[in-house]
Amino acid sequence: MPEPIQRGARTQNLPYAQCIACAVGLLALCLQLALLLWSSPVAAQPAALPGSTLNAPIEVQTVLLSAQETYRSRRVFSGRAVAARSSMLGFNRGGTLINVLADIGDQVTRGSRLASLDTASLEAAERQASADVALARANLTAAQAEARLAHNTEQRIRRLHAQGHAPRQTLDEAALTGQAKHAAVQVAEAGVLRAGAALQAARVALQESHIHAPYDGTIQSREADEGTQVGAGQTVLRIVERGSAEVHVGVPSRVAGSLRLDTPYPIIAGGRRLTAHLRAVLPELATDTRSITAVLNLASDANLPLGEVVELVFEEDIETAGFWLPLSALTESDRGLWGVYVVNDGARVERRLVEVVHTESDRAFVRGTLANAERVVSTGVHRIVPGQQVTARHAPAQTTGG
Q1: Using CA atoms, how far apart are residues 158 and 150, in angstroms rounded to an integer?
Q2: Which of 94, 145, 220, 390 shows its CA 20 to 30 Å from the CA of 277?
Q3: DSSP string computed for 99-115
Q4: In DSSP terms, which residues pair with 196 in a beta bridge?
Q5: Contact call for residues 376 and 330 (beta carbons, < 8 A)
Q6: pLDDT computed for residue 299 by the predictor
Q7: What distance in Å separates the CA atoms of residue 117 and residue 224, rounded to the nearest whole number?
Q8: What contacts 128, CB < 8 A, 6 or more positions away?
Q9: Cα 340–341–343 angle (5° rounding)?
Q10: What is the pLDDT, as a whole number, of residue 49?
Q11: pLDDT profile of the chain (402 residues), mean per 10
């Protein structure tokens, strides 16, 4: 009977299928173990052999600590070069501008005429004032002559009255006439003074119709041309003093208190290093920068463009005990502190905490749990851990100079 024979065949093949499944599972397990062993760093490294250098102490570079009682702080403050004197030039009275003798960039000398107003009416007023002076002087001469005549007449009548030949009335009239003539002389003298003052005012008005250079300088700008009707005080030209410049630098109030008048300070401008002398420290804080302005005078041959950005280099000694370390020796720590690695007498690494007091481009001044003449790891601090055995290689002594 065919059906019983087929069931028996399936029953006989069941142990064989189970064996195949077990073999596949063992093979997968072996592959997983092999992958784990292959990716393990321990398996990737060969076993250390006797005399191998794999377990030798790592070599590190160290610097010798040198205790310092002070450190020199170098700070840079920005400012700009300005003209020692700069003036907006205009007229004291209004009028028609007829001459502008200077243009932008012109070099002018003190006293040279730069611009003029139409002075026709003022010249006429000056001539009239001169005539008034002449008239006043003539009136004074006439008054003085009449006063002398009145005085002489009074003296003759006084002698006649003494001899009994002239009445008292005549004498009194002569005396009063003399006083009146004397008063007329005083009036005439006042008239001369008034006419002279009017003439002087006319001449001043003529002078104020011209603009003259107040000092040697350069015309920075020209604000009006010929034919313009300008008002009193309106700017026509702007002049800046030539050859004399100063530097205005904003500094913190603490630094301002350390600056000394008439002391030279280094200035960096346009890649050049110059020297400027401190002339003044302004007493008030600038409202926009909250800084105090220091004014320094530059040498006349500095040839610094006005408006140039400059830097004041300020150095001072700060009395604080500590050590200089290269920035590469520092590792970040908690609560604002930093860590350094010290190589002890047993050639093992110890971690110490320090506080950074001052930093420069490639080094820092620190204080903390350090001692003089200790060796601090200066480079490669990421490769070591506390307690690790190392071989110290000493850096040159100037690394920690300060």
Answers
A1: 12
A2: 220
A3: EE---TT-EE-TT-EEE
A4: none
A5: no
A6: 82
A7: 12
A8: 202
A9: 145
A10: 43
A11: 43 54 68 55 41 67 92 89 91 93 93 94 93 94 92 90 87 89 93 94 92 93 93 94 86 89 90 90 87 89 84 89 94 89 92 92 91 92 91 65 45
The pLDDT assigned to 334 comes to: 83
CATH topology of domain 58-71+319-400: 2.40.420
Residues facing residue 389 across a β-bridge = 348
Q: Where are the beta strands (DSSP E) in 217-263?
A: 217-222, 229-230, 235-241, 245-251
The answer to whether the beta carbons of residues 388 and 382 sit under 8 Å apart is: no
Q: Is the pTM of this model over 0.90?
A: no
3-state secondary structure labels for all residues of 301-321: CCCCCCCCEEEEEEEEEEEEE
Among candidates 334, 402, 342, which has minimal Cα distance to 378? 342
Alpha carbon distances (Å) from 44 to 11, 14, 36, 52: 49, 43, 11, 17
Domains of the chain, residue spans = 58-71+319-400, 77-83+242-317, 119-208
Cβ partners under 8 Å of residue 349, min gap 6: 341, 342, 343, 377, 384, 385, 386, 387, 388, 390
Burial class of residue 115 in the structure, from the number of CB atoms within 10 Å of its CB (0-12 exposed, 13-18 middle, 19+ buried): buried
CB of 263 within 8 A of CB of 279? no
**Is residue 140 within 8 Å of 188, Cβ to Cβ?**
yes
- Exposure b/e, 317-354, CB count within 10 A at least 16 = b: eeeeebbbbbeebbeeeeeeebbbbbbeeeeebebbeb
Sheet containing strand 235-241, strands side by side: 86-90, 235-241, 217-222, 107-108
What are the E-state strand segments in 21-134? 58-64, 68-83, 86-90, 95-100, 107-108, 113-117
Buried b (16+ CB within 10 A) or exposed e, 38-72: eeeeeeeeeeeeeeeeeeeeeebbbbebeebeebe
Candidates 325, 324, 119; CA nearest to 210 is: 119
The pLDDT score that the predictor gives to residue 244 is 73
Helix axis angle for 120-163 and 168-207, nearest 10°, is: 160
